[in-house]
Amino acid sequence: MAGITVEGVARSFGEVEAVRHASFSVAPRQVAGLIGPNGAGKTTLLLMLATLLAPDAGSIRIAGHDPVTEPRQVRARIGWMPDTLGSWPALTVRDALATSARMYGMSREAASARAAQLIDLVDLAPLADRPTRVLSRGQKQRLSLGRALVHDPEVLLLDEPASGLDPGARVALRDLVRRLAGQGRTVLVSSHVLAELEEMADTAVYVADGVTAAADAVAAAGRTARQWRLRALHPERLREALIAAGFGTVAHVDHLGAIVPLASEADAAQLLAHLVSVGVPVSSFAPAVGDLEHVFLDLNRAGAPPAASAPDPAARIDGEARP
Ligand SMILES: Nc1ncnc2c1ncn2[C@@H]1O[C@H](COP(=O)(O)OP(=O)(O)OP(=O)(O)O)[C@@H](O)[C@H]1O
Description:
Pfam families: ABC_tran. This protein is α/β, with parallel strands linked by helices and 323 residues long. It is 38% helix and 24% strand. The strands form three sheets. The chain has a six-stranded mixed sheet, sandwiched between helices. Strands 11-12-10-13 form a four-stranded antiparallel sheet.
């Protein structure tokens, strides 16, 4: 079975249960975001997938191979980008990449050609002949990504790849990751910057307290009410129309516009049509948080008191509150 499969995986460090129960799969051509609060177990999970830490229980398959019993096969197939790069400070970027390629068994010529390709791919040409110790954090991230790709791996495990990257480099990273997945690779990428994952990932694995969320919990979290941000050329008219439509108690209005909880896209469409029909010059109407962030916040709310439910715009707009 290609891609990544994880079933019932657990790992403790003494008393600390870093990963208690992880189960998920990622198929080839998919980019999956690995999402969870600090200390949730993401790095521990990635280390187990990368053969660098043995699970206490459960099973893992990477491109059909078991990292515990077949580490060599797994290492030949994964590109691993850790959250901090240990580099050889005295080697140049070019030599660092060529040395990595040599370690994968390439000839001197092939390693040097591969290093040149990777320097272009991760946009490090101006620094190719500088020692890696002079690289900035973002440049080191790019070198780390290049190194992860040296042997053309079919599965990529990227731990916080965008940290330290400037906005231009983040866009380049996103495009590169999408392109690599488009070539048939499987990508698992952890990040705290959900807006960024939103544009990169097809799917997400949510982990909290060492436990991955089940698909039905994720689907249910995705269906809960979310906040929408509305703006109008005349904020006062927007405010009056929301009050008249019965949203006065739930809408939060500030100088940027209004934040309104809505249960579904259908409700959003209905409210927008209503506002336009009563003459509010709406200039912007969009979810205030992306899909991943919405699910993340909702899953993390588990245990907290339930969020105030969104009003039903049909009842408010079509009922007695209709202006
Ligand atoms: N080597 C270790 N020894 C003891 N405890 C550890 C070790 N590695 C991780 N832990 C603990 O396991 C838990 C999970 O850590 P992990 O680094 O996997 O979380 P994470 O989701 O990657 O966090 P972050 O988002 O902050 O990077 C934490 O409570 C951490 O303190």
